[in-house]
Amino acid sequence: MANTPVVAVGAPDAFGWRKVTIDDRPAGRVRSAKGLQRLLHRSGIPFAHDIRWHGGDGTAWPDHPCRRRVHGLLMATGLLATAYVFVRIGMSDTFTALTYLGRMTGFIFLLMAVTEVVAAAATFDYWGKREIRYSGTVILIGAAASLSASAVLLFIQLHGGRYTHWLLLWCALVPWSLWTLSVLIHGRAWKGLPNPRRIAIGVVISTLLAFANLAYTHVYVPSTTAPLIEITTAFGTPSLNEERTKLFVPFHFQVKNSGQIPVYVLGSIYWVYGKPVSAKPEDSARRRVIRSDEFIQPSGRPLNPGEDWAQDEVAVIDRPAETPFETIRIETEAWVARKDRMAINNDYVTLRKQSSTLRKEKKDQSPPGPESPYYRYQGNVANSNEILNMTRGRQRITLWHTTDPSAPYVAVRLGPPDENKPFTPTSSPKEQRDRGRYGLSLVRGSVTQKPLAELRERAEALVEHRTGVTPMTGPGTAP
Prior knowledge:
Distance between the termini: 148 Å
Oligomer: single chain
Radius of gyration: 38 Å
Largest sheet: 6 strands, antiparallel
């Protein structure tokens, strides 16, 4: 009897482990009767040996292996799903974000993805043997990051975004992370961590500062800094043909980005109006389009800060001596979009289609009127970062340029690619709000006009100077 070993099994702890000692020497920990049997078998002691039980007899095994494995599987699945989201955002923004800060944010998301993967690996230890001291703390940090990210993404999508398949994932991750945190907090997962309160306060403050910095750099600064596009027009030197039946009026356009924001010039249009001579106010307000076209080509080209674009055009006035016009007036417009908020694919420039082609393809949902001539630019738009792509989805921008001689104009629409609505010249409040998000705006240039008589006199003076012949001013007047 003196050589009979003394086996003692301690009370179960909060994790279900019971310490086993043989002759007052630690032999290991077990969670079930089968585990105790295997431990005694390795020590050469039969399971039927007399055992001293403390804190419960041989039936006190509070561990539930099935529930423990299910909890571990659910936690690992949620953490890996969050890691996939972070990798998707990080890989996209690190290399393709439109701003430097966006690329730095993408790199931070990649680091957070590594944390989520480490936390998923820690679930095997935490819901297994719990040999690593801080495995529960790592899972707690991963779940807190998942809750913060999924809650913010869900908020963004519900307030200003539109439905995408990612919405289902946010709706699943938010309750999952709340459940994970409640289980970990109830089980005191941070047990063994020195100064847990200080660490928690530091994590909370760092997270708040990070979100505040992101909000300042991605929301406040872009909103307060607006693009500055200047469009100016100047008349050139007019000239007459040899028969003096046509007056050629050249004019010069210049577009300059005088601000700090790069833009896309989606489309442009100019009008050369002739204002008729009349003593009646209602008749003098009437005017007719002499010439109209786009003056910035190709449409969709970028215009960076400090860059300018110049173009020369010529308007032809038939029979200037008999025309009813009193003045020649030039007006300009251009639609621009902020390059730091969107990226347009090359299809916008290359896929210009005429109205006749669209009608043959049965894709004519454009300016009204079965015979209205026009051409259309259309291309898909990506957001400035992957977070907005997930919450807002891809967009499509369409620009119509009508070439009706009586009333040419340019119209723009921004919407989802699968949206199929007929054209309307007015925009809804939702469309106006979406335009503001992408910095889509209409820029009107300076208005330039000159009396037609002055242009004729300059042209005739030029002819006289070139030929040395004084123009006839009436019948019977010799040259």
